[in-house]
């Protein structure tokens, strides 16, 4: 019995000894002991670090970089190590803050290789799409309700006329008679005014020749020679051009460095001794946006560009945030309105409005600036 207890005591002493040896080797001070822990060695590697702030485009000077130890397990392959000569004399491709490790992507040998990383706006454009700017005002821009990220449709309205396919001029064409040597007409039309000359009969009013069309009077059956009383009237048509475009930005983007140009164009200071000049204080407020940038497909971008260059009137309509449906639309013309909206064609009456209306009256919004009056010549 006594012998078993002795063996147990010896086993406990051995276990305590092994634990103390393990703690000592790991650098942990045993409880109650006066020894110091052994520090664990960490592998380090020298990397090139900016010793001062370096501006984008600047040439890196000799005192601009230093070698400094860096944890080896934190060094990546793009960091420049062991030799500052790999950096000195290179151009900085970006702003480099003091104390920042320099990587190969931060420097370049060629000054022309200093293009930035691009705009933040381009990051928002999905692959396969492009952005285009569209002019707008309060009426065409949904009363300035548009915000970045909204979805809109683009409606185009234009005037159409009939043109001669060969001449590409508005119909009807002007016409005049061709006379032969014996004064006999070579064409089927006659001039309004003809005179005799040494060359024979000549048309003296070619600017306003008759237009060839013969009408039959409904009551008497008499054939009448008809010509237009005015130029051809254009026909109005409206249709949706682009569906579900994304608003990238409302208004103009901020130009980098524009704040540094604030002093440009400011009035010069008065000369010494000159009386102070007083200028009226004009109240300034937020400027209404006159442009919006849309994310569209490349084909829709071509359509919008053609419409803008052709003077097509563009109007934006706002969609719901979760509305990604597609719908068919029909071009709206005068005939479409009459046929689908129960519009009655006005009866010809023996009275009318004064003054005579030749164009629809456009709404004048009180907050809009008045149109500029052209100066008298």
Can you lay out the helices and strands and say which pair or pack?
Layout: H1 2-25, E1 44-50, E2 65-71, E3 91-92, E4 107-108, H2 120-123, E5 130-135, E6 151-160, E7 194-197, E8 200-203, E9 214-216, E10 223-225, E11 235-250, E12 291-296, H3 298-309, E13 313-318, H4 334-340
Antiparallel strand pairs: 1-2, 3-4, 5-12, 6-11, 6-13, 7-8, 9-10, 11-12
Q: How would you name the oligomeric state of the polypeptide chains in this document?
A: single chain
SS strand fraction: 15-25%
The total strand number stands at 13
Strand order of the largest sheet: 5-12-11-6-13
- End-to-end C-alpha gap: 132 Å
What does the main sheet amount to?
5 strands, antiparallel
Task: Name the average pLDDT.
Answer: 77
Secondary structural class = alpha+beta
Tell the overall outline. elongated
Order of helices and strands: HEEEEHEEEEEEEEHEH
The helix count comes to 4
Weakly predicted, low-confidence segments: 207-212, 259-266
């Amino acid at each position: 019995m006594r012998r078993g207890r002795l063996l147990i005591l010896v086993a406990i002493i051995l276990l305590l000894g092994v634990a103390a040896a393990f703690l000592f080797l790991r650098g942990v001070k045993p409880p109650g002991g006066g020894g110091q822990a052994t520090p664990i060695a960490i592998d380090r590697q020298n990397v090139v670090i900016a010793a001062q702030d370096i501006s984008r485009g600047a040439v890196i000077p000799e005192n601009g970089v230093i070698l400094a130890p860096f944890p080896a397990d934190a060094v990546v392959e793009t960091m420049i190590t062991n030799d500052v000569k790999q950096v000195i004399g290179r151009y900085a491709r970006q702003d480099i803050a003091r104390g920042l490790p320099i990587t190969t992507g931060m420097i370049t040998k060629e000054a022309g290789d200093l293009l930035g990383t691009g705009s933040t706006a381009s990051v928002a454009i999905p692959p396969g799409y492009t952005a285009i700017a569209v002019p707008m005002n309060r009426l065409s821009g949904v009363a300035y309700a548009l915000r970045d990220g909204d979805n809109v449709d683009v409606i185009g309205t234009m005037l159409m006329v009939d043109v001669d396919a060969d001449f590409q001029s508005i119909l009807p064409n002007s016409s005049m008679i061709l006379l032969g040597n014996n004064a006999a007409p070579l064409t089927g039309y006659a001039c309004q005014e003809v005179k005799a000359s040494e060359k024979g009969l000549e048309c003296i009013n070619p600017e306003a020749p008759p237009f060839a069309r013969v009408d039959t009077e409904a009551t008497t059956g008499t054939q009448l020679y008809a010509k237009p009383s005015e130029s051809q009237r254009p026909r109005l048509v409206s249709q949706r051009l682009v569906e579900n475009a994304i608003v990238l930005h409302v208004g103009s983007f901020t130009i980098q460095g524009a704040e540094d140009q604030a002093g440009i164009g400011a009035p010069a200071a008065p000369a010494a001794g000159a009386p102070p000049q007083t200028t009226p204080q004009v109240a300034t407020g937020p400027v209404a946006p006159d442009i919006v940038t849309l994310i569209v497909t490349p084909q829709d971008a071509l359509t919008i560009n053609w419409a803008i260059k052709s003077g097509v009137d563009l109007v934006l309509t706002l969609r719901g945030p979760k509305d990604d449906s597609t719908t068919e639309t029909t071009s709206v013309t005068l005939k479409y309105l009459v046929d689908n909206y129960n519009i009655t064609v006005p009866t010809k009456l023996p009275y009318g409005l004064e003054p005579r209306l030749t164009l629809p009256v456009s709404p004048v919004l009180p907050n809009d600036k008045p149109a500029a009056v052209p100066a008298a010549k």
